[in-house]
Amino acid sequence: MSDLLNIYESMNKQAEADAEVNQRVDVLNKYASVATELLDEKYPNNYTQDDVVKLAEALIVRDIELEESMSKVAEYVEAGKIMARSFMEELSTNQTQ
User: Fold this and answer.
1) Are 33 and 55 in contact (CB under 8 A)?
2) Which of 59, 65, 2, 66 lies closest to 27 in space, CA to CA?
3) Could you write out the DSSP letters of every residue in 14-50?
C-alpha cells in the first residue's frame, strides 16, 4: 500500500513539474512569436532564427527590468503615502496645541 502511495506522490510531483515546464515554454513561445512579428514587420523574410532568439531575449530582459522598475515605483509610492500621513498627523497635532 505504501508503494502505491509513493508512486502516486511521485506522479503528482512529476505532473507539477511538467505543468511548470509547459507554462515556461508557453511564455517563451509568446516572446518568440512577438519577436518574429516585429522582425517580420521591419525586415520581411530577411532575418534568421538567431535574430528571433536575440530579440526574444532582449524583450525578456526589458520586461524583467520594467517589472523591477514598477516594483520600485510602487515601493516609493507607498513610502510617500506613509510620509504624507505622518506629515499630516504632525500638522494636525501642531494645530491642536
Assistant:
1) no
2) 59
3) HHHHHHHHHHHHHHHHHHHHHHHHHHHHHSTT---HH
Q: Length of the chain, please? A: 97
Phi then psi for residue 48, to 5 deg, are -110, 170
Which single residue is written with the C-alpha cell 513539474? 17
Q: How far apart are CA 62 and CA 59, in angstroms?
A: 5
Spatial separation of the C-alpha atoms in residues 13 and 36, rounded to whole Å? 34
> Tens of pLDDT along 44-90?
989 999 999 999 999 999 999 999 999 999 999 999 999 999 989 88
